[in-house]
Amino acid sequence: xxxxxxxxxxxxxxxxxxxxxxxxxxxxxxxxxxxxxxxxxxxxxxxxxxxxxxxxxxxxxxxxxxxxxxxxxxxxxxxxxxxxxxxxxxxxxxxxxxxxxxxxxxxxxxxxxxxxxxxxxxxxxxxxxxxxxxxxxxxxx
Length: 141
Prior knowledge:
alpha+beta
């Protein structure tokens, strides 16, 4: 007889299912790493824009939207499409705290989190303060 037995077909379907599961898992990890890379890039671009703003006006802006359109082209949003980057400034606008959540699975091994500010008492006003401890990547001037 020519053909496949039921056991052979089930084995092939199980192997294909296992391979597709492994592929989807690695694809999700790659997407997570790409979003984290975008977050770090956005934070560094905003840091430059904040310094340019400070150099021209002598203080930091009250909100990130104040950087648009002179210093950055559009108000940055987190790559998840929902969140905004965390930002606060003190009452004199002489200091700021800027941060974003890192979602990658390898948070403990992240070199970026080992070199960030981890600011707890940032001096921000109006209850806008946020904890900078990991998994938040944060910077201060």
